[in-house]
Write a structure and sequence with these properties.
The chain has helices at 28-41, 47-61, 69-85; strands at 2-4, 7-8. The chain has 90 residues and is mainly alpha-helical. The chain has a two-stranded antiparallel ribbon.
């Protein structure tokens, strides 16, 4: 897979873990974006798209659970009870 004029990767790159290391503002995000574009143009499945699709499947099958729901409900009930106990104008 040809990434640039002077840079090519073997086709096996689609099954490998890739790390992009560089200083700040050196183009790491751009490099990752170009790599995923090249994978798509080479007819390979984009691993980022796969992750997004899998996350969407999981969300659709399992509605989000808010662990804090029970605590929030109790806090709201306690606040309402305190408000009911207060006299108007105090």
């Amino acid at each position: 897979m040809q990434i640039a004029e002077d840079l090519a990767f073997p086709d096996e790159i689609v099954t490998q873990t890739i790390g992009i290391l560089a200083k700040r503002r050196a183009g790491k995000s751009y490099t990752a974006r170009r790599l995923t574009e090249q994978l798509g143009q080479a007819g390979e499945r984009n691993p980022i798209e796969e992750l997004i699709e899998r996350a969407q499947e999981i969300r659709a099958a399992n509605p989000p659970i808010n662990v804090a729901d029970e605590r929030h409900r109790r806090a709201i009930e306690a606040a309402e009870a305190m408000a009911d106990d207060e006299e108007p104008g105090s």
